[in-house]
Amino acid sequence: MNAANHPEDCHDNLIYDWNTVENFIPLAQGIEFDDESLRDGLQSPSVVDPPIEKKFEILRLMDRLGIHTANIGLPGAGPRAVKDVTALCRFIAEEKLSITANCAGRTHPNDIQAISNIQQETGVPIEACTFIGSSPIRQYAEGWTLERMLGHTIEASDMCMREGLQQMYVTEDTTRATPETLRALYSTAIEHGARRICVCDTCGHATPVGVRNLITFIRGIVLESGEDVKIDWHGHRDRGLDIMNSIAAIEAGASRIHGTALGIGERCGNTSLDLLLVNLKLWGAIDHDLTALPEYLKTISEACQVPIPKNYPVFGTDAFETATGVHAAAVIKAFKKNDPWLATRVYSGVPADVFGLEQKISIGPMSGRSNVIYWLEHRDIEPSDERVDAIFHRAKESDRLLTDDEIKESIVGVA
Prior knowledge:
- By secondary structure, this protein is α/β, with parallel strands linked by helices.
- Helix content is 43%, strand content 12%.
- The mean pLDDT is 92.
């Protein structure tokens, strides 16, 4: 049998994956995601807080992507936050979305009461994400004692229980906190009803090794408690390790990962949720339909006025575009075999079609004649020698890729 005539018979042998040869730790199944784009993401110094209609659209897209829960705001921040959180809860109910709601709040009665009021008014369950700093440097700056922090923890956890709020107890700057402090804080929160705890790399300090060490330690605290408590990971990307750290957290036993679209957030931002989803999909750890990711990112980019960099992985305009002759030639040959699977992988580590995108062949100074022929044929234009020569000559004199209009101009009147 000629494999070239039956490409579907040989796909399994066309890519050797060194990622899975040895020392491969299978990722846990049933991973959940918390989208922080509409709360932590909006703390970025350069974003615009979108109008509520845009937030509805974004929430609908999160639900379509199979994201499990969304942080929809911090009601304790003021009247606008209360208004938006209330409207988003009502939207979830009216649209019958599968995504659930959570809200951030300090371990302070005012913040917890604000969340409780919205839950009671809308009838939509809200997970209260009550946070408190935990590192020695934060304690020193704030003038906090451990006794005071434990007092706030008990007060917040007990109030969540009284108000009928699910609680996720969050320690800020967990990755720089001492084992003794973390044991005291988490054990106390669990004892007083918290059934989900969140480990935070608030300043983007952690490395993958540190994440594994920390999550393993926290799992020990949970085990000692004897309670069924889930562990969340909330990372930032100050050192560019957000995706690696999130995967390390999953490998170590975290069951839910936080992130934001495009990694927006304070300072350098949060874990890029979109890129994490891409990597987990390619790893086979999730089976979400991610073809709506481009629309999700475009919507958030426009609503928050955050441009998507052209070379942003997967979703930047350059991600699946090539004009380099040898690269483009391989893709074109794959297309001519009438094999989309091959075309999206022969010169790409990420298959474009899995994420609702496609390969693009362009023309520039590094292009070969095959680029030109493909461009013309793709637009039902006869690739005569004269047209190919005209475009090819124009491309070789250019210092950048030609636009479609420039290509068309170069063959005006050419037969």
